[in-house]
């Protein structure tokens, strides 16, 4: 019992310290980036030149923040890291014979991308949930969304909204239009299968749905955390077929 208690305390401290540090320090990399570099090294390949450039909260447009919430976690501002409504719905579908679908919140995805590894095992999901709760206790909602949008993978070796904006639309993240923001967020379930600058019909349909859901969230006065400090000029060179989303 004594050793078990010590291990438990040690485990809590080991998970709490990095969460506390990253509350104020921007992460130089994520576990997913490091994993990709290690996998390339094991194969004797040169690690890919990761496209990753941090951008502060004030340089992320409000339309992009709102699109992320509309697409990934519409109860982001009301839960504490885990969404019991989505968890119950996912379990109900599974018990009725359906496929077990993920019910991850933005906080859980941040914890997974930053600290853990891909997969669907129960052990990893429990660890992800614990880290998400810690993040919610230590970080404000703005910080969670800021880190999530900076480390999410948007394409091969492309992490974060700034790198994705420069790669696919040849502009800063602050200059994205609402349509381009929806296309970027639309690739997050499967970043290796879609290109925002050359969107397939399925990606265009998803981006249109994200725009529709974003409008349902209401004005920015109803989402006080979604304030952009400074907005630069719009993209000067929008990619083909990406400026307007066909219905």
UniProtKB/TrEMBL annotation:
One of its GO terms (cellular component) is plasma membrane. Its EC number is 2.4.99.28. One of its GO terms (molecular function) is pentosyltransferase activity. Pathway: Cell wall biogenesis; peptidoglycan biosynthesis. Keywords: Cell inner membrane, Cell membrane, Cell shape, Cell wall biogenesis/degradation, Glycosyltransferase, Membrane, Peptidoglycan synthesis, Transferase, Transmembrane, Transmembrane helix. It is an enzyme of class 2 (transferase). It comes from the Bacteria. InterPro entries: Glyco_trans_51, Lysozyme-like_dom_sf, PBP_transglycosylase, Pep_trsgly. The keyword Transmembrane helix applies. It is a single-pass membrane protein. Its main location: membrane. It catalyses: [GlcNAc-(1->4)-Mur2Ac(oyl-L-Ala-gamma-D-Glu-L-Lys-D-Ala-D-Ala)](n)-di-trans,octa-cis-undecaprenyl diphosphate + beta-D-GlcNAc-(1->4)-Mur2Ac(oyl-L-Ala-gamma-D-Glu-L-Lys-D-Ala-D-Ala)-di-trans,octa-cis-undecaprenyl diphosphate = [GlcNAc-(1->4)-Mur2Ac(oyl-L-Ala-gamma-D-Glu-L-Lys-D-Ala-D-Ala)](n+1)-di-trans,octa-cis-undecaprenyl diphosphate + di-trans,octa-cis-undecaprenyl diphosphate + H(+). Residues 49-213 form the Glycosyl transferase family domain. Pfam families: Transgly. One of its GO terms (biological process) is cell wall organization. Transmembrane segments: none annotated. It is found in: Cell inner membrane. Belongs to the glycosyltransferase 51 family. Peptidoglycan polymerase that catalyzes glycan chain elongation from lipid-linked precursors. This is Biosynthetic peptidoglycan transglycosylase. It comes from Caldichromatium japonicum. The lineage of its organism: Bacteria, Pseudomonadati, Pseudomonadota, Gammaproteobacteria, Chromatiales.
């Amino acid at each position: 019992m004594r050793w078990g208690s010590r291990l438990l305390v040690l485990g809590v401290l080991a998970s709490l310290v990095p969460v506390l540090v990253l509350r104020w320090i921007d992460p130089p990399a994520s576990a997913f980036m490091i994993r990709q570099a290690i996998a390339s090294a094991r194969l004797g390949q040169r690690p890919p030149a990761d496209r990753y450039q941090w951008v502060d909260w004030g340089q992320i447009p409000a339309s992009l923040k709102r699109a992320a919430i509309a697409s990934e976690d519409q109860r982001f501002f009301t839960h504490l890291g885990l969404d019991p409504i989505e968890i119950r719905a996912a379990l109900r579908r599974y018990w009725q014979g359906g496929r077990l679908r993920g019910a991850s919140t933005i906080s859980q995805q941040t914890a997974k991308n930053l600290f853990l590894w891909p997969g669907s095992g129960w052990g990893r999901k429990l660890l992800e949930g614990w880290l998400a709760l810690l993040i919610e206790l230590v970080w404000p909602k703005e910080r969670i969304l800021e880190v999530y949008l900076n480390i999410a993978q948007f394409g091969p070796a492309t992490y974060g909204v700034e790198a994705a904006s420069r790669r696919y639309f040849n502009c800063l993240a602050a200059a994205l239009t609402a349509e381009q923001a929806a296309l970027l967020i639309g690739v997050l379930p499967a970043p290796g299968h879609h290109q925002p600058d050359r969107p397939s019909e399925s990606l265009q349909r998803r981006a249109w749905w994200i725009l529709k859901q974003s409008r349902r969230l209401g004005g920015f006065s109803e989402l006080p955390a979604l304030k952009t400090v400074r907005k630069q000029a719009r993209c000067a060179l929008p990619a083909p077929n990406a400026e307007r989303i066909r219905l």
